Amino acid sequence: MEVLTFVLSLGTLYSIYVILAASMELEYGELGLPNFAKVAFFAVGAFTVGALSVRLCATLTGVALEGEFKLRSYYYATLLSARISSNPLLGLTVFLVTLIVAVPLSMLLGILASYPALRLREDYLATTLIAFSEILRVITRNYEPLLGGTFGAGVVDFLAWLRSPWRELTMLVLCSSLAAGIWFIQYKLSTSPFGRALRAIRDDELASVAYGKDVAKIRAWTMAIGSGMASVAGVLYAFYIGSVNPDDFTVARTFLVVLMVTVGGRGNPYGSLVGAATYLLLDRVMLFIKHNIPLPFDVNYFSYIILGILILVIIVRKPEGLIPERPPLTVKLNKISESNIIQHNTEK
Amino acid sequence: MIEVVVGALVYSNLLAMLSVGLNLILLTCKVSNFAHGDFVMVGVYTALTVSTILGVTPYACLPFALIAGGVISFALYRVVFEPLRTRANLVMLMVVSMALDIILRYSLHIYADLAQAWLKVHTRLFLFDDFLIEFSGVKIPGVLVFSSLTSVILLVSLYLLLFKTRLGTAMRASIENPELAEALGVNVKMVFGLSWFLSGALAAAAGVFLPFRAMVSPDTGWSMLLPTFASVIVGGVGSLSGSLIGAYTIGVAEVFLTYVLASLGVSTAYRPLVSFSAIITVLLVSPKGLSGFLNGKGWKPWKS
Question: In total, how many domains does chain B have?
Answer without folding.
Answer: 1
